Amino acid sequence: FASIPRAEDPDYRIPLFAVVAIAPGASPEALEQTVAEPLEDAFRELDDIKEIITTSRAGVSTVRIEFEAHI
Fold first, then answer.
1. Which among 46, 37, 53 is positioned nearest to 68, based on CA atoms?
2. What is the rounded CA–CA span in Å between residue 17 and residue 38?
3. Residue 62: CB partners within 8 Å, gap ≥ 6?
4. What three-state secondary structure class fits 39?
């Protein structure tokens, strides 16, 4: 294993990321309007978006963005 050649810093891209907003006491509707929807609109401006998934519940909103993988 130690003798297998490898790059010191291989170019490895993860085609997804998530933004998590925490606002204790905020309703899912408030987070959807003030956090999730503006983020979704901004992310839609980017190239190669495969999917945007948003979940909001009391106090927490998560926006997950997946890009098209280019290998």
1. 46
2. 17
3. 18, 19, 20, 21, 54, 55, 56
4. helix
Q: If you compute the radius of gyration of the chain from its CA atoms, what whole number of angstroms results?
A: 17
Is residue 9 predicted with pLDDT exceeding 80? Answer: no
Comparing CA positions, the residue from 24, 20, 26, 25 lying closest to residue 55 is 20
User: Which tokens go with 31?
Assistant: 């987070």
Partners of 16 in the beta sheet? 66
Confidence at residue 23, expressed as pLDDT on a 0 to 100 scale? 96
Identify the H or E element spanning 63: strand 60-67
CA atoms of 41 and 63, how far apart (whole Å): 11
Give the mean model confidence (pLDDT) for residues 40-67. 95
